[in-house]
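Need residues for this backbone.
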């Protein structure tokens, strides 16, 4: 504290002056009539009331005036922890603010605090807006998976503030890579030279070992709030609870358990496990707040499958599963119990003799589905069923290079697809040589031709669904490929192309379901497509499409349900008060398809053309890993800005002082008039 500041603050001692003035003030004594006194001549009064503190309101105004005067002299600039940016030579800036609305942002900024990381991120965004001026541009991107643009680049700060105010936390996973790409794309072409991506996230995207996040080109990455960064806190979540008869199967996922090196007497370090977040915690099955069954969790477990037996009187009760104890995120400690069968079941019609690997084992597609751990159950089928009822238990069907389908097969598969199924057809030389009477209509119309590949390789830019892994298809050089007829492409979306522009992967809606067609078979004799990394991403996309169409009654929070061929759609989340407590979920339209995205985990009620369906959204498992992703070193450079801003409040204090002086004059005038 400087000498001038201390001297100005010392003026606050003068608050004793009004006290002394009010105590020394002497007023006339109260007069009382005494009848005999009328016979005595009047004399000047000499009695006075005893000194006391009078006109307390007036005294308060005078005391506040002196304190305000001292404050005005001591601190003309009052410091506060407000986030502000530093401009380059005073030039205007273009910001793309990424706000992470994933589940991990529900954790507290400090263990003993009440503010969540999401609330701090919103406040930080508002603080940044307060420091912007005319000529600046702002865009908003949400980092909860899937990453999405909340507001395109604009100079209308009112719209930006309204967008920030409307943000709500969710139970989504985190997709920082996609959010960074979107933010950088929004800044392209803007006239401002200073372009920045402002990252307001805890950096816990489930991939702590990935490369550090960085800017791109002329776009600078700035992470201005280090207090948001996750620190590997302990957390456990109930990600799934299914009922099968009189049993409930529960899946619990916890943050990874660390190990420490413990030296021994021989000098050899041994690895000792550290007690995990599941230590001392139990899983409970509850109904109407009453605990029905419970079991203890292991002390150090990352994933655990627990089965609990139910009493016999719970057939019509709404059940929930909850964890006892506390951890970093309370919202993921319980989940509703759904019916068994919510897992996506995928039927595979693959010829093991044609699709095999030299090391033996199951076909590559079956091994890939198992390795991806997509919470999907694959079942090999010897042939395509002739009746739609045989496919009713499946949400997805993959048929590899079938020599056409008989009329009975086509009718069964088309009826199943129209009710919401997704079929994935891989087309090869057998499909082109279908015998008389066999084909793929109405799944795929037209005549297909198998021939040599004129231009090898897939255009990665035409395959955005696979992200960065699409580059591994760039040099794909099969011995041949399928050429589709023009009528086959009618009402179909081309999802990927060969380098010569020919369709590589198409999607065609059929009723409430969809047909995917790949112009290559999975056989290793024709190509090595099934052995490339992008093939895993392709299968992942296939499973996601099947889930979105309703192939599974359970999806991760943030994954969308897609409704094709449905005239009336209503989606609502079942609230905490029971089945009648319905919270509507808005519908969106993308590529002329209605979609509904469950933002938080819970039970959802769907009405599709008058028919009710119950579906469940669960917590994404990868979001439970609270270890942070690395940042490029200069992302927290103080030259970009910081949280130690200064606000000039001297004018406000001076105005308050003027009002107090005016109020004092009014009170004095009123007091004299009253006397």
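Answer:
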């Amino acid at each position: 504290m400087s000498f001038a500041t201390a001297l100005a603050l010392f003026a606050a001692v003068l608050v004793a002056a009004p006290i002394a003035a009010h105590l020394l003030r002497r007023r006339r004594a109260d007069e009382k009539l005494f009848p005999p006194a009328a016979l005595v001549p009047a004399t000047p009064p000499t009695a006075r009331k005893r000194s006391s503190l009078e006109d307390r309101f007036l005294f308060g105004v005078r005391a506040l005036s002196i304190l305000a005067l001292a404050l005005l002299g001591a601190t003309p600039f009052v410091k506060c922890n407000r986030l502000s940016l530093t401009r380059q030579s005073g030039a205007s800036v273009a910001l793309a603010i990424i706000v992470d609305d994933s589940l991990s942002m529900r954790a507290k900024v400090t263990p003993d605090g009440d503010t969540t990381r999401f609330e701090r991120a919103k406040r930080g965004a508002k603080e940044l807006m307060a420091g912007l001026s005319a000529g600046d541009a702002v865009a908003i991107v949400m980092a909860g998976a899937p990453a999405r643009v909340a507001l395109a680049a604009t100079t209308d700060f009112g719209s930006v503030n309204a967008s920030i105010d409307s943000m709500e936390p969710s139970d989504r996973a985190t997709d920082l890579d996609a959010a960074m790409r979107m933010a950088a794309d929004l800044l392209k072409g803007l006239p401002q030279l200073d372009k920045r991506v402002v990252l307001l996230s805890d950096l816990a995207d489930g991939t702590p070992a990935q490369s550090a996040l960085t800017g791109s080109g002329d776009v600078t990455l700035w992470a201005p709030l280090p207090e948001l960064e996750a620190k590997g806190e302990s957390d456990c979540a109930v990600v799934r609870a299914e009922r099968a008869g009189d049993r409930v199967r529960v899946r619990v996922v916890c943050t990874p358990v660390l190990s420490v090196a413990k030296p021994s007497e021989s000098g050899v370090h041994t690895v000792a496990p550290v007690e995990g977040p599941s230590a001392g915690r139990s899983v409970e099955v509850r109904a109407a707040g009453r605990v029905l069954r419970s079991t203890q969790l292991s002390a150090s477990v990352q994933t655990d499958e627990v089965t609990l037996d139910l009493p016999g009187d719970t057939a019509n009760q709404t059940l929930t599963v909850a964890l006892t104890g506390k951890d970093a995120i309370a919202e993921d400690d319980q989940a509703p119990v759904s019916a068994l069968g919510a897992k996506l079941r995928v039927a595979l019609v693959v010829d093991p003799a044609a699709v095999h690997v030299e090391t033996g084992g199951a076909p590559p597609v079956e091994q890939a589905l198992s390795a991806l751990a997509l919470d999907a159950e694959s079942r090999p089928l010897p042939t395509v069923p002739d009746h739609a009822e045989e496919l009713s238990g499946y949400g997805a069907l993959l048929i590899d290079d079938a020599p056409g389908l008989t009329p009975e097969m086509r009718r069964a598969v088309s009826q199943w697809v129209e009710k919401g199924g997704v079929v994935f057809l891989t087309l090869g030389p057998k499909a082109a040589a279908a015998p008389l009477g066999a084909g793929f209509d109405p799944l795929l119309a037209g005549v297909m031709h198998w021939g040599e590949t004129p231009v090898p390789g897939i255009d990665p830019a035409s395959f955005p669904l696979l992200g960065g892994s699409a580059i591994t298809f760039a040099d794909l050089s099969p011995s041949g490929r399928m050429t589709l007829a023009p009528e086959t492409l009618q009402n179909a979306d081309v999802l990927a192309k060969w380098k010569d522009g020919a369709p590589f992967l198409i999607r065609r809606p059929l009723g409430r379901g969809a047909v995917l067609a790949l112009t290559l078979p999975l056989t290793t004799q024709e190509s090595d497509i099934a052995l490339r990394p992008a093939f895993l991403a392709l299968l992942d996309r296939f499973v996601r499409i099947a889930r979105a169409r309703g192939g599974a009654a359970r999806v991760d929070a943030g994954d969308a349900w897609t409704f094709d061929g449905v005239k009336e759609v209503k989606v609502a989340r079942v609230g905490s008060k029971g089945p009648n407590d319905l919270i509507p979920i808005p519908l969106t339209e993308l590529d002329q398809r209605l979609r509904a995205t469950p933002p938080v985990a819970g039970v959802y009620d769907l009405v599709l053309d008058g028919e009710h369906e119950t579906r469940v959204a669960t917590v994404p498992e990868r979001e439970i890993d609270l270890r942070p992703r690395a940042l490029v070193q200069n992302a927290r450079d103080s030259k970009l800005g910081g949280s130690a801003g200064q606000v000039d409040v001297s004018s406000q204090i001076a105005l308050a002082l003027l009002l107090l002086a005016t109020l004092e004059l009014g009170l004095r005038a009123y007091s004299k008039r009253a006397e």
